[in-house]
Amino acid sequence: CPGFELAFTPGLQNMPEGTPRLYGYDHSHYTVRCRMALGLKNMPYRMIWVAEDDEETPMKLVGRKITPIIEFPGEGAMPESSDIIARVDGDEAYGPPVLGPKTDRPEIDAWVKKLSVPMRNLGRPRYIRSAVLPEFRSRSARERFVTTHPLPDPVTGETLSKADWAALPKEQRDSVYEHYWKDSEAQLAALNAALPGVEGLISSDRHVSGHGISWDDIVFFSRLRGLTLIKGVKLPPSLEAYLETMSEQTDVPLLTQMAM
């Protein structure tokens, strides 16, 4: 794909022939990571949304049900987000690498861990209710997501293995998802209580760590973009500014307009 960075002017031209194709889910952290790398490199690409219950497409491409997957002209299809990002960032046709190395940020990891349970309990019931996320536009796709993505037992708090969860009657799985949808107020209170802990952890609205845009941003933004799907979330000023700026830098829209 050499030369596209010189020939392609977004908005004035159609997509150049032979641009890479990225297959993935809109809600997926790992697909978001690849989109970020492509956006930071200003590399044109075709985004192919894969339905949650579409096994055939990834099987034909790489022999297993996995996303994201990228196809470059003249190259075999490539799975695994880390490999895709390395391939994109290292493509000298679009300039030198833009991503600095990942650094050890245990304080961020600890803070994100505090968010993980309420984020999951709020996010998953919202994914399957969204009329906009392309991977969930059929009942079959939504039901497949519920079958393969456990939520904690509302009474015990235990989260079953994927196999044990899938073995439950459909009605039982659906009732757990419905519980967390109706329990949004309590889950949101827990989430909003934990969010202020981010203050002081973000170096700049343009990069989370002091050494500039890096793998730290790929991980941080992709994990937290899902917050913008949750109506009533109270983003601290530094986090809100960061998410908005990184969204613009990477050309990965936030989910604010579809928040519920």
Commentary on this structure:
The chain has 260 residues and is mostly helical. The protein contains 11 helices and 4 strands. The protein has helices at residues 4-7, 29-40, 56-62, 81-89, 106-127, 139-148, 162-167, 170-182, 184-194, 215-224, 237-250; strands at 21-24, 46-49, 69-71, 78-79. The chain has a 4-stranded mixed beta sheet with strand order 2-1-3-4, with helices on both faces. Strand 3 (69-71) and strand 4 form a beta hairpin. Helix 5 crosses helix 8. It is globular. Residues 1-7 have low confidence and may be disordered.
Notable characteristics:
260 residues, mainly alpha, four-stranded mixed sheet, 11 helices, globular
Round the mean pLDDT to the nearest integer and report it.
Answer: 94
How many DSSP helices? 11
Tell me the helix content: 40-55%
Gyration radius over CA: 19 Å
The N- to C-terminal Cα distance equals 40 Å
For the biggest sheet, the summary is: 4 strands, mixed
Tell me the overall shape: globular
How much of the sequence lies in strands comes to 5-15%
Across the major sheet, the strand order is: 2-1-3-4
Low-confidence stretches: 1-7
Number of strands: 4
